[in-house]
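Q: How would the structure tokens look for this protein?
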Amino acid sequence: MRKLIRLVVLLVVLLLVAGGVFWYYVDRIAKTGVERGATYALGVPTTLASADVGLLVGTVRLNDLTVTNPEGYETPHLLAVDRFDLGVATNTLMQETIQVNRFELDGVDLYVEQKLGTSNMARVLENIKARTGGGGEAPEEEKPGGKKIQVDRIVVRNITAHVQILPIGGKATTVDVEVPEIVLEDVTSDEGKGLAVAELTQRLLPAILSAVIKKGRGTIPDMDLDRLAANVNETTQALGEKARDLVEQTRKDVGGMLEKVLKGGKDSGEGEEGGGLLDGILKPKEGEEGDKKGGLLDGILKPKEGEKGDTKGGLLDGILKKQDER
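A: Here is the predicted structure in token form.
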């Protein structure tokens, strides 16, 4: 009996020691996992300044992620992210798949450096294709292990892209494109057991680039954007349906607010599109008997019919005409 008690006590002590070691090294474990996963996913060295895992409160903060350029490119980096903020279900931290209920990126800075016929982004997108079997033979090293992540929604804020434009003659110039925010829904809905960090990284980069491409239209020459768009499309084809869906989401999301204001919103329920915010001011609406009634400005600018068919002026008429009579 005493031997059994000693054995139980020894097991408890070992568990406490193991838990203490894990607690002490959990930040380092998270940092190493992110670096290995992203490096494998993109095929270029990726570093993380620090990771802060709050085991008791279920938070994870990753600081200063930097993805280096492929060899032969000179811009400061390919991609850098100031901060990742995650909220996780604490009861899943020790499980194979971690449930993430909040996933936000803030301060994304990327460079598109072009050379004749290719770019640093094209090279990395080719690496992604290779690792999915869509662009040649996959590298010999095995995929990194580690936990998987189950996340439905990712918010990416404050994206700045420095896009190099190749001139016909003279020196290359760089144009900055800013995307305030993109929201990606159902990110891992196709994977019941979640995604590895490497796979999640591979889905995120094309989606971010797609938002930059859409926002850059009209500022950057179509030829440069079309070349990058072709690279993104080829990569998402290799990654599969869910990656393509995320790219489509960014194409609809960027500039959506402006479209709601100028072009109108969702269907009104009768098969017709509801007007935008400016419609109530500028566009006429149907009256009760089919006649069109003016928008908000009509009362100010347009004349109205009087009781006997005579035309009465708008609000400004009463002001302007009285001035004339004087």
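The first strand starts at residue 46 and ends at 54.

Residues 12-24, 135-140, 255-278 have pLDDT under 50 and may be disordered.

Upvote if useful.
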